[in-house]
Specification:
The protein has 361 residues and is an alpha/beta fold. It has one domain: 2-Layer Sandwich (Nucleotidyltransferase, domain 5), CATH 3.30.420. It has 10 helices and 15 strands. A hairpin with a 2-residue loop joins strand 12 and strand 13. Helix 6 packs across helix 7, helix 6 runs antiparallel to helix 8 and helix 8 packs parallel to helix 9. Bound molecules: adenosine-5'-triphosphate and magnesium ion.
Length: 361
C-alpha cells in the first residue's frame, strides 16, 4: 500500500531532524520518554521526561483515552527537551509474544523458513495478522542456531503507531517491553555476564501488569505477563477508604520521616502484595523448583510497583532467591543534578524506556 501523504510528511520530518532514537514507554500509569548518547558499555542518559496518566487511560493494552495519550506524549517530550522525532516504542499485553527456539543448521533461507514456520505455531492471535521478527543470538552446542522471536498483532501496532504519529513523531522501531527489560538487564551486568550463566528471574512490576522474564544465555527463555501490579493496591485503598484515584496514589506512596506508612494503608498494601506475589510464584514455580534444569539463581526487580514497601523481602521469601533492584545506572551514566528523582525510584520507573532507547535498528 502506498504511504499516505501524512506518513510521507512524517518520514520527511524524521529525515530533516534525524537525531537519535528516542525510547517511548506508554505505560498504564505514566508515559516515559528518554534519549541516551553513546553506545553499549558507554551509554549516558541525556534526557528523560514523564507524564502521569489519569485513572484507566489504558486498560490491558486498550487505549481508553486516546487524546490524553497524545497530549501525554507531547507533554513528556516537552518536559524532556528531546528534539529528535524518531521513536522506538514498546508493546506489551496479550497481542504480543516471544519465543526462544533452536533452529537446525541450514542456508539463510532455510533458517528463516524454519523460524517463520515454527513461530506461526505459537502465535495465538493469528500469524497472518502479525508482524514477526527474529534475532539470531548465536550457535547452539548441537550446531544449530539459537533464535529469539518476537511478534505483535498488526492491529495493536497500528493503534499505537497512530497515536505516536498524532503526536508528530515517527514510529521508527517497534519493540516489546519484555525484551527492553532483558536488554537493560544485560547492559547493567555486561562486565559480569559469566556470573549469570545459570539463569535470572527478571520482574517488571508495573501498575496493571507484571512482566516475568527468565533470562539465560543472551536473552529470555521465557516471558509472561500477568494482570497484577501496583494499581491493585491503589484500587483497594480507593475502595476501603472511599478516596479518589489520585488521593489513593498519594496515600500509598507518602511515607513518614522513618519511611513508614500509616497502619491502615500498610495492611491494605501487605494484603495486596501477598496476592500479587502468590500469583508471580505460581508462574515461576518451575524455575525455582529444586532439580529444574532451567533453575534460576538470581532475581532482579524493576517497575514502579516493585517500590512498594516490603516488595523485595516478600519476593525473596517466596522465591528463595535474594532479590535485588535492577539498576540501569550501574553502567549507564547520568547526572543526578539534572533529574529530580532518587536513583532507586528512577531506575525502577525508567528501566523499560531506557531499554527501548538502547535500540538502534
Ligand atoms: N514509592 C512507591 N511505592 C509504591 N508504589 C509505587 C511507588 N512509586 C510508584 N509506585 C507505583 O508503581 C506503579 C507505576 O509503575 P510503572 O511506572 O512501572 O507502571 P507503568 O509502566 O506505567 O504501568 P504498566 O507497566 O503496568 O503498564 C503505580 O501503581 C504506582 O503507584
Ligand atoms: Mg511498565
Amino acid at each position: 500500500m502506498a504511504a499516505s501523504l501524512k506518513d510521507q510528511i512524517q518520514e520527511l520530518l524524521g529525515k530533516i531532524n534525524p537525531g537519535g532514537i528516542v525510547g517511548l514507554d506508554i505505560g498504564s500509569h505514566s508515559i516515559k520518554v528518554c534519549e541516551l548518547s553513546g553506545s553499549p558499555g558507554k551509554y549516558k542518559l541525556e534526557h528523560f521526561g514523564l507524564f502521569q496518566l489519569s485513572e484507566a487511560a489504558i486498560i490491558e493494552d486498550e487505549v481508553q483515552k486516546p487524546s490524553e495519550i497524545v497530549d501525554g506524549i507531547l507533554e513528556a517530550f516537552a518536559r524532556s527537551k528531546i528534539k529528535s522525532k524518531m521513536v522506538c516504542f514498546g508493546l506489551f499485553g496479550p497481542n504480543t509474544t516471544t519465543k526462544r527456539m533452536n533452529v537446525p543448521e541450514g542456508s539463510k533461507e532455510e533458517v528463516e523458513d524454519h523460524i517463520m514456520w515454527e513461530a506461526e505455531q505459537y502465535i495465538t492471535f493469528g500469524a497472518d495478522e502479525s508482524q514477526i521478527s527474529f534475532h539470531i543470538l548465536g550457535t547452539n552446542e548441537g550446531g544449530g542456531k539459537d533464535a529469539m522471536i518476537a511478534a505483535a498483532r498488526l492491529e495493536t501496532i497500528e493503534a499505537y503507531s497512530e497515536l505516536i504519529k498524532e503526536a508528530k513523531l515517527v514510529p521508527k522501531i517497534i519493540d516489546l517491553n519484555v525484551l527492553a527489560v532483558s536488554n537493560v538487564f544485560e547492559e547493567s551486568i555486561r562486565d559480569q555476564l559469566d556470573d549469570f550463566s545459570e539463569g535470572t528471574l527478571l520482574l517488571d512490576v508495573g501498575a496493571q501488569n507484571t512482566k516475568i522474564i527468565i533470562y539465560k544465555n543472551g536473552g529470555p527463555i521465557f516471558t509472561k505477563e500477568i494482570p497484577v501490579g501496583g494499581g491493585l493496591i491503589t484500587e483497594e485503598i480507593q475502595r476501603q477508604m472511599g478516596v479518589s484515584y489520585e488521593e489513593a496514589e498519594d496515600l500509598k506512596t507518602t511515607v513518614d520521616d522513618n519511611g513508614n506508612l500509616p497502619e491502615e494503608i500498610l495492611n491494605i498494601l501487605n494484603m495486596q502484595l501477598d496476592n500479587q506475589i502468590a500469583e508471580i510464584r505460581k508462574n515461576i514455580n518451575f524455575y525455582i523448583a529444586q532439580g529444574s534444569t532451567d533453575r534460576v539463581s538470581s532475581c532482579f526487580v524493576t517497575g514502579g510497583g516493585s517500590l512498594a514497601l516490603g516488595f523485595l523481602e516478600k519476593i525473596s521469601a517466596a522465591s528463595g532467591i535474594e532479590a535485588e533492584r535492577l539498576n540501569p545506572f550501574r553502567r549507564i551514566k547520568f547526572d543526578d543534578r539534572k533529574f529530580d528523582h532518587s536513583i532507586e525510584d528512577f531506575g525502577a520507573i525508567a528501566s523499560v524506556v531506557i531499554g527501548l532507547a538502547m535500540r538502534k535498528d
